[in-house]
Design a protein that fits this description.
Lysosomal dipeptide transporter MFSD1, about 475 residues, transmembrane helix, transmembrane, MFS_trans_sf, single chain
Length: about 475
């Protein structure tokens, strides 16, 4: 069992005097704020860059994969489904493994290794035209991908709790979307360049090895961050507190109110109408709007580009305005309109995808915090684990179904299918249930108001 207090590198000199004076007050001093931002925060943001870059490698090279590997759309979407299946279970245990077994440093390294091995296997599968190996690779990749994000968040809490934590979470989310955006806009030109020398599935395999290089880079970031974190523990005399993270208690499910399950339905219904669409979007934009692969990838990446910029902004605005339920309904409704626009009109797809990116940012910023309004704090770990499990189960199943729909019925029926899913949360928000959620929000607002009044009275008493 790993202990955070064990040295990461056994040959490190642990001289007490050196610990206190090694780097003064510059960027190397963990006691200063400069060190937290650079290099720690910078490296922290790159920790999952490779994972997000490679997650949508299939989407960026959709037409090439279908042609070079002779796949159907159903087989193609299996790559996304197999990523989600392990996370139906692992979302419950990723935090536990970090808190109780590995520690955040070793955990981040292990999960980075899984991501790297998965992408290397995926590249080799393409290089040797082995669909079975590529499917196994996406499963291995999924084992590490989501848990690595948990480790990244754990690092953020450890370094920035009580300081700029919300800003750091928003920055990490934005940077992960940058990884997805870079993938969407780089892989097609890279494939075209390699295709001048090597053709077919071998060209595809070489291009995918670039993604493996990104994963190796993130693995190096995990190693460097572990070294810096261990060094800071030694200098600052920090000690890990065992079990301080949220614990998963499945028996708590019986106490969850109906409004929580409604939020979970909204979550899965919304996300299955966005991410599988992005996974299949390249060929859709090529076929309907007569775009080149590079143009289609640029349009397809707009959801990620917009959310990278807009998510922190909308999060700040929603924090100030409240009314999470209103913003959730707005996000679902606007996304429904975007799918209708893309399905039934020939208006430039830039409009639909930009607005969809804004709507996605609104919903993501408003939906997840709603759980904290209705679930006690000691049960939040269980609640978020269940939501993530339901979300990944939905993505695993709907990804396969979406591919089969395209094979048998085409993209128009697929868009109607996604619109039906987006209607589901809207229809389920009956007046009675909306009122229940509003009452929960109002109760939370009154509780926070009461706390502020008590703190204010304490402040007055201290003065006198």
């Amino acid at each position: 069992m790993a202990d955070e207090r064990e040295p990461l590198l056994r040959n490190v000199q642990e001289d007490d005097e050196e610990k206190e004076t090694a780097c003064g007050t510059g960027p190397c001093d963990p006691k200063g704020c400069i060190h937290r931002y650079f290099p720690v925060l910078v490296i922290m943001c790159f920790l999952s860059f490779g994972s997000y870059f490679c997650y949508d490698n299939p989407a960026a090279l959709q037409d090439n994969m279908l042609r070079d590997l002779e796949l159907t759309e159903g087989q193609f979407m299996l790559f996304y489904s197999l990523y989600s299946w392990p996370n139906v279970i692992l979302c419950f245990f990723g935090g536990f493994l970090i808190d109780r077994m590995f520690g955040v440093r070793l955990g981040a390294i292990i999960f980075s290794i899984f991501v790297t091995i998965g992408q290397v296997m995926f590249s080799l599968g393409s290089l040797f035209n082995s669909f079975t190996l590529m499917c196994a690779a996406r499963f291995v990749f999924g084992v590490g991908g989501e848990s690595l994000a948990v480790a990244q968040n754990t690092y953020a809490v450890k370094w920035f709790k009580g300081r700029e934590l919300n800003m750091v979470f928003g920055l990490q989310l934005s940077f992960s979307r940058v990884g997805s955006t870079v993938n969407m806009n780089v892989m097609q030109p890279l494939y075209s360049f390699i295709d001048e020398h090597v053709h077919g599935y071998r060209c595809l395999g070489i291009a995918l090895f670039v993604g493996a290089g990104m994963c190796v880079f993130s693995l190096l970031c995990a190693l460097l961050l572990a070294f810096l974190d261990k060094r800071a523990d030694r200098i600052l005399q920090r000690q890990a507190v065992a079990g301080e993270g949220e614990q998963i208690r499945l028996l708590d499910v019986r106490f969850f109110p109906l409004s929580f399950w409604l939020i979970s339905i909204i979550c899965v219904a919304y996300y299955v109408a966005v991410f599988p669409f992005v996974g299949l979007g390249l060929v859709f934009f090529e076929m309907k709007f007569d775009m080149s692969p590079t143009q289609a990838n640029a349009v397809n990446s707009l959801v990620y580009i917009i959310s990278a910029v807009a998510s922190p902004v909308f999060g700040f605005l929603i924090d100030r305005s409240g009314k999470n339920l209103f913003w959730v309904i707005l996000g679902v409704t606007v996304t429904l309109g975007c799918h209708a626009l893309l399905a039934f009109t020939f208006i430039t797809p830039y409009v639909g995808m930009i607005v969809m990116g804004l709507a996605y940012s609104v919903l993501a910023s408003a939906l997840w915090p709603m759980v904290a309004l209705i679930i006690p704090q000691h049960q939040l770990g269980t609640a978020y684990g269940i939501m993530q499990a339901i979300q990944n189960l939905g993505l695993a199943v709907i990804s396969l179904v979406a591919g089969l729909i395209v094979d048998s019925k085409g993209y128009l029926v697929l868009e109607v299918f996604f619109m039906a899913w987006l209607c589901s949360p809207t229809l389920n928000l009956s007046a009675k249930r909306r009122q229940a959620l509003r009452e929960a929000e109002q109760a939370r607002d009154e509780e926070e108001k009461l706390k502020k009044e008590i703190e204010s009275e304490k402040g007055v008493n201290k003065v006198f």
